[in-house]
Amino acid sequence: MRLDKYLADMGVGTRSDIKKAIRKSRVCVNGSVVRDAAYVLDEPETAQVTFDGKPVAYEVFAYYMLNKPAGVLSAAEDRQEATVVDLIRQGEESTGISVRTDLFPVGRLDKDTEGLLLITNDGQLSHRLLAPKHHIDKVYYAKIAGVITDRDVQRFAAGIRYDETLTAMPADMKILKSHETEGVSEVEITIREGKFHQIRKMVAALGGGREVLYLKRISMGSVTLDPALAPGEYRRLREDELAALKAF
Length: 248
Ligand code: URA
Hints:
Layout: H1 3-9, H2 15-23, E1 27-29, E2 32-33, E3 49-51, E4 54-55, E5 63-68, H3 84-94, E6 104-105, E7 114-120, H4 123-130, E8 138-145, H5 150-158, E9 172-178, E10 184-191, H6 198-204, E11 211-220, E12 223-224, E13 234-236, H7 239-246
Parallel strand pairs: 7-11
Antiparallel strand pairs: 1-2, 1-3, 3-4, 5-7, 5-13, 6-7, 8-10, 8-11, 9-10, 11-12
Uracil is lined by residues 109-110, 113, 197-200, 215.
C-alpha cells in the first residue's frame, strides 16, 4: 500500500496535504524519514508509521456503536445538518485521534429516533446485516400516545397492513405500561425488516389516533446498546460483539 493512501485512509488529511507533509519530512516509517509519497508499505498492518512524531496505526476496518441522539441525520455527510459520522469525527478529534474518511452508518434511523446505530467502513458486513432476506431482529423501545391492548399485540403478531400496499412481517410487541388514565403506553417492539418509518407507520395503522411519541433502538441482532452510552456517545465494538455480528 502506498504511504499517502495509508495516511489518507486513516484520516490524517487530504491526499495533497499528505503529499506535502511527506515532502517536508514529517512522516517516518519504521524509524526513518520517508520523503516519497509513493513509497510502498509491504505490511501496512505491522508498519510503524508516525506523522509529526505521533503513531498512526493502520486498521483495515473500524466498528463503532453509537447512541444516536434525536436531531442528527443517519448519513456519512450532509451539507447542512449534523450527521452520525460527524459525531464520531468530533469525538475522536477532541482526543487528538484522526478519523478515517470512509465511515458510514449501517442502515438508518429517523432523524428523531435515538439509540443503537453501528458505524463502520465494512461494506460487506453492512450489506449482510441489512439484506432483507436475513431478517435480523431489531428491538425498539417506544412511547406511544394512546392505550395499547392485547388485541394490538395480536395485530402486530399477525402482520399489520400499514400502507396501501405494505403489510409488515409478523412483529413482537411487549406491553411494558399501558394506562387508560395516562393515555400513554410504553412498549418494546421487535421487527425483522427496516422500511422507511416502519414502526411509526405500524403504530399509526393501529388506528384510534395512536402515534409514536418517542422511539429508541435497543438492539440489532446480537448487539445491544451499551447502557453506559448517553445519547451522542459512542465506543468501539468489542471483539465478542463483532464476532457475533460476523457469525450472523
Ligand atoms: N421505525 C421507524 O419508524 N423509525 C426508525 O427510525 C426506525 C424504525
